[in-house]
Amino acid sequence: MKKEKLYDRSSVSYKAKRLFKRNWSGWLLMLPGLLLFLFFVWAPLAQNVILSFNETKGFESVGFNNFDNYIRVFNDPMFTKALANTFKYILWSIIIGFLVPIFLGLLLSEVVHFKPFFRLGIYFPSIVSGIAVVIMWSYLFDPNPGAVLNQLLTALGIPVSQFLSNPSLTIPLIVVTMTWRGAGGTVLVYLSALQNIDNSQYEAARMDGAGALSRVLHVTLPHIMPTIRMLFILQIISVFQVFYEPLVMTSGGPDGASISLLLLSYRYAFESFDAGASAATGVILAVIIIILTVIYLRISMPKKDKVSNKWRRYAEKVKK
Amino acid sequence: MLKRLKSKSSGILTAADYKKVGFRIVYWIIFFILSVAVLTALTPVLWLFISSFKNAEELTATPYHLFPEAFNFNKLAEVWQMLNFWQYFLNTIIVVVGAVLCSVVFNGLLAYVFAIVKPKGYKIFYGLVMASYMIPALMSIVPLYKQIIDFGLINTYIPLWFMFGANAYYLIMFKNYFESLPKALFEAAEMDRCGKFKAFFKVVIPMSRPIIGVVAIFTMTAAWSDFLLPYLVLNDDSMMTVMVKIYNLQSTMGTVQGFGPDKLLMILTISILPQIVIFALFQKQITGSSAVGAVKE
C-alpha cells in the first residue's frame, strides 16, 4: 500500500517535486540576470506607466489624475513638433543609414586586398563614439563662412550653408553623424552573416549558370534577409532613442526643428520637473514603438524564402 | 596584386569570374568605394586632432588654414594638468571594467539558461526580455533615477556597472551563439554529471571566446561613451567620468577662466585617444568578431 502511494506519479506533490528537481538549478541560474532586468528595465517601465496617470510633485506622485498628463502633453506645441520630428528622423535614417551598411558589408566580404584594414577603418567611428564625437561634429558643422566645411563648399562652388541652424537641414545632418557613428558596427554584423553563407550554395548556383547578380539576389540576399530584418527594426528603435545629438548639437533647435520625443521627455523631467508629462511622453513613445514593431513583424515574418531553399537543395545534391 | 584574385575560391565572385576583365574592373570599383568609406570614417577625427593644436586665434582665423602654425604638444600637457584629467580617466576605467564584467557574466548566464538549460517557465521571461527590448531604456529614466536614489546608489558606480548586466541586445547575441554550439557538447557535460553552473564555466565559456570578445568590446565602447545615467548619477566632480566632465565643460564654457573652444577641442582629442588605443590593442578581437558566425562545427 505504502509503496504504491510513494510511486503514484499522478499525485500533485510528486509532480511538483519532479518539476522542482528538474528545474531548480536552471531557475537559480536565471535569477541574477532577471533581478537586473527587473531593476533596470521592468520596474522602471511599470512605474513609468503608473506615473503617467498621476499628478506629480517633483518626482513623487501625489494622486491619480486620469489622462490629465496626456492631455497636457498633447496640447503642448513642442510635443507635436517632437512627434513629427521623430518620423522625420526615421525617414532620413532609412534613406541615409539603412542601405549603406548592407552595401559596405557586401563589398567588404568580397574584397581580398587590405581586408583587415578596411574592416578596422570602417569600424573606427563606432569605437570613438560618445559625447566627445557629437561635440566634434557640432564644431565641424560651424556655420561661419570661414569654417572648414563652408570653405570646402566654397571651393566646390556651392553656396555656404547654415548647417544645423537651417531647420530643413538639421535633421538630415544629425542623421549623417548618426550613420557615421553607427554604420561600422552594423557592417560587422552583416559581414559575419555573409561569411556564414555556405560556399557550396554559391557553387551550386554557379553550376546552374547563375550570373553574379543572380547569385547576389538568390543566394546572398535570402541568406542575410533575417539579419536585414532584425537590423531594420533595431535601427528604427535606435532612431527613436535619438537624444544626445539634438541635446548637444542643437539643444533641439532651431526652434524645436530637431527636438526628439526622448529629448522632450528629458526636458519635462529635468528642466520643468514635470515627471507626469515626462512619463506620459515616454509611454506614448513606447506605444508607437510597439505598434511599429508589431506591424513590421506581421509584414515581414511569414513566407519562408523558397528561393534559398531551392539553392539549398542544389547544394545538397552537389555534396552527394 | 592579381595573384590574390586568382586564388579567391569563395564568396559571390571567385577566380573564375575574375578571368573576365569586366569583373576585374568591378573589383577595383569595390576597392575604390571601400577606400572612400574608410576615408570618410577617419577624416572627421583627423580634422579634430589637427585642429586641437590650434590656438584660440588660429581657430577662428580667416582665411581658413587646415593646419596650425605649429604642433605644440605643451598644449596637451597644459590642458591635461589644468583640469587634472587623470581623475576622470581613472573613474572611466573603473566604470568600463565593471560594466564589461557585468555585461559578460549576467547576459551570458541568462542567455545560457534561455538557450541550453531551458527550465520550465523560461519562455515567460524570455518573452518579457524580448518585449522590453523594443522599448528604449532612456524612456523610463525618471523612475530608474528615483529607484537609484531610493536604494542609496546615487553617486556610486554600482548602477553604472550593473545596468550593463541587463542588456537584451547582448543577451540575444549570446543566445544565438550558444544555440549554434554543437548539442553533443552539452550532452557530454550532462553525462559527466557536470552541474549546470559548472558546465557554464567549463564548457560554454571556453567555447565562446569570440562572442565574449565581441560583447566585451561593444560594452567597452558603450560604457566609455555612456552619458545620461552617469551624468544623473555622478554628482561629485571627483566621481565624474570623462564624458560627463566634457559635457559639463562644454555647457559651462566661457565661465571657466582661460577655457575656450581651442582647449575644448584638445580635451576632445584627449578623450578620444584612449579609445583608439583600446581599438589598436583589441584589433584581433574586433577582427574575430566578424568571424563569430564562421565558427561552425
Structure write-up:
- The model of chain A has no long low-confidence stretch (mean pLDDT 82).
- Chain A starts with a helix and ends with a helix.
- The longest helix of chain A is centred in the first third of the chain and has 41 residues, at 12-52.
- Chain A has two domains: 12-51; 72-319, MetI-like (MetI-like fold, Orthogonal Bundle).
- In chain A, 76% of the residues lie in helices and 3% in strands.
- Chain A has helices at residues 2-6, 12-52, 68-74, 77-110, 115-127, 131-140, 148-155, 167-195, 199-207, 212-240, 244-250, 261-270, 275-300, 306-319, and strands spanning 54-57, 60-64.
- In chain A, helix 4 packs antiparallel against helix 10 (212-240) and helix 8 packs antiparallel against helix 11.
- Chain A is flat, with a radius of gyration of 27 Å.
- Chain A has a two-stranded antiparallel ribbon with strand order 1-2.
- By secondary structure, chain B is mainly alpha-helical.
- Helix content of chain B is 71%, strand content 0%.
- In chain B, helix 3 (21-51) crosses helix 16, helix 6 crosses helix 13 and helix 15 (242-251) packs antiparallel against helix 16.
- Classes of the chains: A mainly alpha (320), B mainly alpha (297).
